[in-house]
Design brief:
Length: about 290
């Protein structure tokens, strides 16, 4: 099974981060010194993905610009002897990476966004989806790599799962497992954003999906689901026997929320050798607040 393409839905308005997102796409907000979208591209690239398909809105030009060469800046940094900095802006996504942009004119839901990439995926091709809001810090294998390995061993499409607290569960797609063994769950069903009382488990689907091209046949454009949107959860439900859920190893930050975004900056900041000591003493100073 080869997985060479990733779909990155980035057309959303990012209203939770206004006014910061008035003219800057939320995916361009930095965690430490790197925009969120670059973490997603680097995660996929490390897992062997070569084509990055952005489902975007024409106003979000800075995402495209970020992945284009900036030879003027590159040469200037080299000229100034700043080779390390120059390397940080070169070949993001790997040598030969292909960037494709597909317009989603209206936000009609995640299922609709993914469906916009239908013509980019070949018959029976496997592909990955990353929601850049879900930033995941891992040790060795990143989540994309873990899920590709799972799909290979199980010969099924894969959903990333995380156990979520009761008061947060209604923000997610939630699975009803037939069985759970270790990190793997066989699925009985999945429901989008249930009320807590109706949630079939505490296992939520997180923003990583490994699909086969057949998923496009299950996206129902005529019958919107929860909140009037075309939900990917409903497409998954209609083919649920061909999926497994996988509880990944890693620490996830919901960078679609302000608190999650700030926590990500703290955690990634602490992981940065240059920032670690200063941040740590600042946090210690604040401990008794
Ligand atoms: C989307 C999906 C939901 C999933 C979540 C993960 O919701 O619809 O099933 O649990 O991403 O982050 P959104 O957060 O876009 O509302």
């Amino acid at each position: 099974m080869l997985v060479k393409k990733v779909i990155l839905p980035v057309a959303g308005l990012g209203t939770r981060f206004l006014p910061a997102t008035k003219s800057t796409p939320k995916e361009m907000l930095p965690v430490v010194n790197k925009p969120l979208i670059q973490y997603a591209v680097e995660e996929a690239s490390k897992a062997g993905i070569e084509e990055f398909i952005f489902i975007t809105h024409h106003t979000k030009t800075s995402i495209k610009e970020h992945f284009e060469e900036n030879s003027g800046l590159y040469s200037k940094l080299i000229e100034d002897g700043k080779k390390d900095l120059a390397e940080t802006i070169k070949s993001i996504g790997g040598e030969g990476a292909k960037f494709t942009y597909v317009e989603q004119a209206e936000p009609k839901g995640l299922g609709h966004a993914i469906g916009c990439a239908k013509d980019c995926i070949d018959e029976n091709e496997w592909f990955f989806v990353i929601l850049p809001d879900d930033l995941i810090m891992t040790k060795e294998l990143n989540v994309t790599e873990q899920m590709i390995a799972t799909a290979k061993s199980e010969s099924k499409q894969v959903l990333a799962l995380q156990r979520i607290d009761d008061d947060e569960i209604s923000k997610y797609g939630v699975i009803s497992p037939i069985s759970t063994e270790g990190k793997l769950s066989k699925l009985n069903s999945i429901v989008e954003k249930p009320d807590y009382a109706d949630a079939p488990s505490n296992l939520a689907s997180i923003g990583r999906y490994l699909f086969n091209q057949t998923i496009f046949d299950h996206i129902d454009y005529e019958n919107p689901g929860k909140n009037g949107e075309i939900q990917i959860t409903d497409a998954i439900l209609s083919d649920v026997k061909n999926f497994v859920g996988y509880e990944f190893d890693g620490m996830r930050f919901d960078c679609g929320s302000k608190a999650g975004y700030i926590k990500a900056n703290i955690e990634f900041g602490l992981a940065d050798d240059e920032l670690h000591d200063e941040l740590k003493s600042f946090i210690e100073e604040k401990k008794n607040l």
